[in-house]
Design brief:
- The complex is a heterodimer of chains A (334) and B (799).
- With 334 residues, chain A is an alpha+beta fold.
- Chain A contains 11 helices and 10 strands.
- In chain A, 42% of the residues lie in helices and 23% in strands.
- In chain A, the strands form 2 sheets. In chain A, strands 1-5-6-10-9-8-7 form a 7-stranded mixed beta sheet, with helices on both faces. A 3-stranded antiparallel beta sheet of chain A has the order 2-4-3.
- The longest helix of chain A has 37 residues.
- Chain B has 799 residues and is of the alpha+beta class.
- In chain B, 26% of the residues lie in helices and 29% in strands.
- The longest helix of chain B is centred in the C-terminal third of the chain and has 19 residues.
- The chains are: A alpha+beta (334), B alpha+beta (799).
């Protein structure tokens, strides 16, 4: 009898283990545990066994019943999980299809670079100032120590609206407008459009500059160098190589041009050149006279730089005209 | 200014490498724009002698030459030049030679005749721009010798940007002087003494200076018995390397001395001057002169001229007259070396639209003391090259010799301005090396005298710059200053604009920046009026199409739409924040300008996507952007209809805030689209930025919200199609009582299911109380009130 039970155990467990569907598993349940099932028959036969063997037989048979029941439950749960997985897999979405993105807007590259410049100077304590694009000759030239007969005016091919009124050729007139409104200390940064009668692949008749002005007691040329070095490191990386070479601007003395060494890849080869960033210098005492400042007490520095030039180098843009043509294939790249 | 290294070395013993010198010049303020080695690419060009010239049998414009290059047989060369004759010495490129640009000479047939090389023009050898004929060389050059050293093609040419303050750098001596000062080297000037063999200069001519305010000095020298000659090769090379065109020996000599000294000179044919004399005077108004470029110039009475007894013979410092020009037959020459007032020269040159080598130098300020030396030098060269006899003495009209100006420099001021510690002795030595004469020096300061060629030095700051330059900008430390903060806010609107720009980008719009130029035609095309009276016009536009400053962003937006559609864009959602310009309304000279936002929408509403229906933008997309902007700025505008030629009638509206127009939008009219070459719907909006930014409320006050549940009811109505949605909503808000939290239109329909002339509008109403949970009775009461009001005021019926 015990042998029969053990045989039943091994054959039933083997069957349960290999059963392939939930329905077949339920049939096995009936086959072994149902009213006419094999185990049920054995349990019935217990009463016919000799009395001293009955408790042991009963225990073993009941234990087998529980074992088989548990094995079936486990097998059914396992089969259920497999069936569900198969069903999910069958109706899985194609996750390589593109998702529903929000339409993406793009800030103009000139705005991006200008904002970066402003942020760096704002951290140093500079404030944004502005001025009109259509300027008087007084603010654009005369008050910046550039009278009408000054040859420096030749380098500014100027658009005239009428005698005395021009499209500003640089952002420097903002210097004088700020100094007329305020007293030192002054620390401003002035972005804006400027205009020159000039159009080729590197010149646009309208372009962007950022002007800076710091006026206080004890401001020196070394402060100018340090400020611009700090700025250029933040903008272009700590290992940027900067060159300040003497230059001439009527409204600063001493004056300098700012260049950085710029390496870009050309045909797979690194190509290094000097990139002109802008001009700078110590505010000319004559300019302070126009502003009504005491140039013995106050000194200051000023600088101006071209925004597109920085952007063109950094992003390897071949023509300045892309900036102002409004082709979205350009605008959406940045 | 093109500076030849070989020539430079005549004045100062520079021993630097080519690139090192370029760097050093730049660091002194003489910015190098380009370094060229004219002969670097040239190979196998030799000295040749033309033995024979015969016409080409099959080509009128070609000749066949036999040219001896010192080998057993002469080369047969087919040539198109005309300026040579048999016996001339010319640079000859043999087979296998290379010329600038990598151009290689090969054996080839020209119209059936074999050509075994090429005879070269000056330009073909990189010697200047002359390409009128072959470069004819002096007769004594050795036939067959390598032409490169003989033509000084192994030179290095530095192209220098001469800043407007340094007239002295427009001459070789000035550049050499700067290097000598920096490297503490002696400056060698050539001897300019000339052998005076003629009678006194005054016996040939006189100079009357009637305008000493414009001509501080006028030096003249007379040479006679000028013989025909050729410009020597060494001079021709230098002129070529300096980019100077060759004219004739006398003019070449004056140009050479100008390049050497920076002092422009002029040669007059003495025999073509009326009464052989010079009068320096202002022109008479309307007086004319034919200049050497054959143009007739009409003069103003503030212009300085050099005249003879009768009429102008030169526009002083700008250009000579053709009638007194020196030529082949000139035997007696008056050389002029003068100092003209820079501002006068500049005004004259500008008024006449003339920009010459002479005017550029005079307007930067010439060296009044150099004038005499240069005049001697030019006479000396004339006697050497043209075998001329030099009359004794100069004619020198120098009524009030210029006193050198004096400037004081405080040693401490230098260091304060530069942020350096430069010892007084060092400062003093620097100034002295630069020929600033120290007349007085103490522990605190010094006084110096400015040399005659340094017009730029007028005050202390200028001397400090000299110290800085010579000390070296690289040696000045870099310090980051502690910036003292000011309470002043200079441009509050600019900071707001920067935020707004980013907000618009977050709405999915792409920022563009357009040129701010427009034209009356374009403005009229855009339906913005036809009068140019209220436009800001440019006096000197680049083109007619950019002759005005835009009075609106609309033309820019239409151009952008047109360009992108033409180039295949399927979707354009873009904005610009920029200025528009109008003549001042208050009569001021300075036009007014104000900032606007421009928005353009056309094409697809969203990028194409497999998971949504393709749809095209409509006017509500455009209005929606404006509503977003006003919402962001927390402004509630009043909308009303808007009629302009730009937009389709009935398809445009404007927004007012406190009675001021703040924005408008609409669908662009078909005829406007046509004029911009657009064949699809375009929607535009403009916001008057300064009008809305100044209204923006700064601070939002928190409104507590209810903790009781909201109750939502819908209401479907039928109304006449003429009833505006805004009217319905207004009535809802006014009649609902305080329980209404929000009302939205969730459906609008007109069509088959609705009677003709009616539309169906469905409202979603949200009721909520701050104090309690609402009962059905509460909401029904409010709902009934609303319906009653809509029935009475809007003729609405429940659907």
């Amino acid at each position: 009898m015990i042998d029969t039970i053990n045989e039943l155990r091994s054959s039933a467990l083997a069957e349960i283990e290999t059963v392939a569907s939930i329905r077949d598993a339920e049939e096995l349940r009936i086959k072994y545990l149902g009213r006419k099932g094999a185990l049920t028959g054995i349990l019935r036969g217990v009463s016919e066994a000799p009395p001293d063997a009955r408790p042991e037989l009963g225990r073993v048979a009941n234990e087998l019943k529980q074992t088989l029941s548990a094995a079936l439950d486990e097998r059914v749960a396992g089969l259920k999980a497999i069936e569900e997985q198969a069903k999910s897999a069958a109706d899985a979405p194609d996750l390589t299809l593109p998702g529903r993105r929000a339409s993406q807007g793009h800030l103009h590259l000139v705005s991006q670079v200008t904002d970066e410049i402003i942020e760096i100077f704002a951290e140093l304590g500079f404030q944004v100032a502005t001025g009109p694009e259509i300027e008087t000759e007084y603010y654009n030239f005369d008050s910046l120590n550039t009278p009408d007969d000054h040859p420096a005016r030749d380098s500014h091919d100027t658009f005239f609206v009428k005698p005395g009124i021009v499209l500003r050729t640089h952002t420097s007139p903002v210097q004088m407008r700020v100094m007329e409104r305020a007293k030192p200390p002054i620390a401003v940064i002035a972005p804006g459009r400027v205009y020159r009668v000039d159009a080729d692949s590197t010149h646009s008749p309208m372009f962007y500059q950022v002007e800076g002005l710091l006026v206080d007691e004890g401001v020196s040329f070394s402060d100018l160098k340090g400020t611009l070095m700090h700025f250029l490191k933040r903008l272009l990386g700590n290992d940027v190589k900067v060159r300040f070479n003497p230059h001439f601007f009527p409204f600063t003395e001493p004056s300098a041009e700012i260049h950085v060494e710029w390496t870009s890849m050309r045909g797979g080869q690194p190509h290094t050149r000097l990139l002109e960033i802008g001009g700078c210098g110590m505010v000319h005492p004559r300019v302070f006279e126009y502003a009504g400042y005491d140039y013995e007490k106050y000194t200051g520095f000023a600088f101006g730089m071209g925004v597109e030039r920085i952007a063109m180098a950094r992003h390897q843009i071949n023509s300045i005209h892309h900036f102002y043509e409004s082709d979205i294939r350009f605008l959406e790249q940045f | 200014m093109q500076v030849s290294l070989k020539w430079l070395k005549e004045f100062v013993d520079i021993e630097l490498g080519v690139d090192e010198l370029a760097h050093q010049l730049t660091m002194l303020g003489l910015e190098i724009e380009k370094v060229t080695r004219p002969g670097a690419e040239i190979k196998n060009v030799v000295i040749g002698k033309i033995l024979e010239i015969k016409p080409h049998p099959d080509a009128d414009k070609l000749v066949v030459c036999q040219t001896d290059i010192g080998e057993s047989n002469p080369l047969q060369i087919v040539c198109g030049a005309k300026n040579m004759k048999a016996g001339d010495i010319v640079p000859t490129a043999v087979i296998g030679a290379t010329l600038p640009g990598g151009f290689e000479i090969a054996r080839r047939k020209m119209r059936g005749i074999e050509s075994q090389g090429m005879m070269c023009s000056a330009r073909e050898l990189g010697l200047g721009k002359d390409h009128d004929g072959l470069l004819i060389l002096p007769a004594d050059l050795p036939i067959g010798a390598d032409a490169i050293p003989l033509l000084a093609l192994d030179d290095v040419i530095y192209e220098i940007e001469v800043t407007p303050n340094r007239g002295d750098w427009a001459g070789m001596i000035g550049v050499a002087r700067e290097l000598a000062a920096y490297f503490k080297l002696p400056l060698r000037l050539p001897d300019a003494t000339c052998l005076e063999t003629g009678e006194s200069a005054e016996s040939f001519s006189t100079v009357t200076n009637d305008a000493p305010d414009l001509c501080a000095r006028y030096v003249a020298r007379i040479v006679t018995d000028v013989a025909q000659a050729a410009t020597p090769l060494w001079m021709a090379q230098r002129l070529a390397h300096a980019g100077q065109r060759m004219v004739n020996p006398t003019v070449d000599i004056t140009n050479y001395v100008m390049l050497e000294t920076g002092q422009p000179l002029h040669a007059f044919d003495l025999d073509r001057l009326q009464e052989n004399r010079i009068v320096v005077r202002r022109a008479k108004a309307g007086e004319t002169i034919r200049t050497i470029d054959s143009e007739i110039r009409t003069l103003r009475d503030d212009m300085l001229v050099i005249a003879d007894a009768k009429c102008p013979v030169a526009i002083a410092g700008v250009m000579g007259g053709i009638d007194s020009e020196v030529g082949e037959n000139t035997r007696r020459i008056l050389f002029e070396s003068a100092w003209f007032a820079p501002s006068s020269i500049r005004k004259t040159a500008r008024a006449l639209g003339m920009n010459t080598e002479a005017s550029q130098r005079f307007q930067r300020g010439a060296d009044v003391e150099m004038a005499a030396w240069a005049c001697d030098r030019v006479a000396q060269l004339a006697s050497q090259i043209c075998s001329a006899k030099v009359a004794s003495g100069r004619i020198d009209s120098y009524p009030a010799p210029t006193e050198p100006i004096e400037i004081s420099l405080r040693w401490t001021r230098t260091n304060a301005l530069l942020g350096t510690v430069i010892a007084p002795d060092t400062q003093k030595a620097i100034l002295e090396r630069l020929s600033f004469k120290v007349t007085n020096s103490s522990d605190a300061a010094c006084t110096i005298r400015v040399p005659s060629w340094r017009h730029d030095a007028t005050r202390e700051a200028d001397l400090i710059e000299e110290v800085a330059r010579m000390y070296g900008y690289d040696n000045i430390p870099a310090t980051v200053p502690r910036v003292r903060k000011s309470e002043m806010v200079y441009a509050p609107e600019e900071n707001k604009t920067r935020k707004l720009r980013r907000y618009l980008v977050s709405l999915g719009l792409t920022e563009m920046m357009n040129l701010t130029f427009s034209s009356p035609e374009e403005i009229s095309k855009a339906g913005l009026g036809t009068s140019s009276d209220n436009l800001v016009m440019l006096q000197n536009p680049l083109a007619e199409t950019s002759s005005a400053m835009r009075p609106s962003l609309i033309p820019s937006l239409l151009n952008a739409a047109s360009l992108n559609i033409r180039r295949g864009a399927r979707r354009l959602h873009a904005f610009e924040i920029g200025h528009v310009y109008r003549p001042s309304s208050t009569g001021e000279d300075q036009p007014s300008e104000s900032a606007r936002i421009g928005i353009v929408l056309t094409g697809l509403r969203e990028d194409e996507h497999w998971g949504r229906e393709k749809s095209i933008v409509d006017i509500y997309d455009c209005k929606g952007v404006l509503e977003n902007i006003f919402n962001q700025l927390r402004l509630t505008p009043i909308w009303s209809s808007f009629n302009t030629d730009t937009f389709t009638v009935g398809h445009a509206a404007k927004a007012e805030i406190d009675g001021v127009s703040a924005a408008w939008y609409g669908q662009v009219a078909t005829d406007v689209l046509e004029k911009f070459g657009i064949e699809q719907d375009v929607f535009l909006a403009e916001v008057v930025l300064d009008k809305v930014l100044c209204k923006q409320s700064e601070n939002v006050v928190f409104r507590p919200f209810s903790s009781f549940p909201p109750s939502m009811r819908d209401m479907a109505l039928l109304v006449d199609t003429s009833v505006a949605a805004e009217t319905l909503l207004d009535n809802v808000r006014k009649s609902a009582g305080k329980l209404l939290q929000d009302v939205r239109i969730f459906d609008v329909y007109a069509g088959k299911q609705v009677p003709v002339g009616k539309k169906s509008i469905a409202l979603s109403l949200i009721f909520q109380s701050q104090e309690r949970t609402l009962t059905d009775k509460d909401t029904q009461k409010a709902w009934d009130q609303i319906l009653k009001s809509l029935q009475e005021k809007c003729g609405a019926t429940l659907r």
